[in-house]
Amino acid sequence: MKALRLGDEMVDLARFEDAHYLTVAEVALAMRVSNMTVYRLVHAGELPAVRFGRSYRVPAQAVKEYLGSEQHAADPGHHPPAD
């Protein structure tokens, strides 16, 4: 088992083997918004991110969950007519 000691705590590195992080530019492209919009989402706490030096990385899974959540739908009150 791969583990790393951070202070008094051991961190299981196996949890991070499949982690995929995106740059702000990659997230903006995927969401079809500007980089500034992604930064606003990160700073507002709506989109989790990890800071690496002066840049941010966003977990790909977090982007997927954000885009799939109903609260971010274009018009949550709009329901298409039933056939």
Describe this structure in words.
This protein is an alpha+beta fold and 83 residues long. The protein has a domain at 20-70: Molybdopterin biosynthesis moea protein, domain 2, CATH 3.90.105. It has helices at 24-31, 35-43, 60-68; strands spanning 3-6, 9-12, 21-23, 50-52, 55-59.
Question: Would you summarize the structure shown here?
Answer:
By secondary structure, this protein is of the alpha+beta class. It is 31% helix and 23% strand. The longest helix is centred in the middle third of the chain and has 9 residues, at 35-43.
Poorly predicted tracts of residues: none
Share in helix: 25-40%
Shape: elongated
Number of distinct beta strands: 5
Write the SSE topology.
Blueprint: E1 3-6, E2 9-12, E3 21-23, H1 24-31, H2 35-43, E4 50-52, E5 55-59, H3 60-68
Task: List key phrases describing it.
alpha+beta, 83 residues, three-stranded antiparallel beta sheet, two-stranded antiparallel sheet, single chain, 5 strands, elongated, 3 helices, Molybdopterin biosynthesis moea protein, domain 2
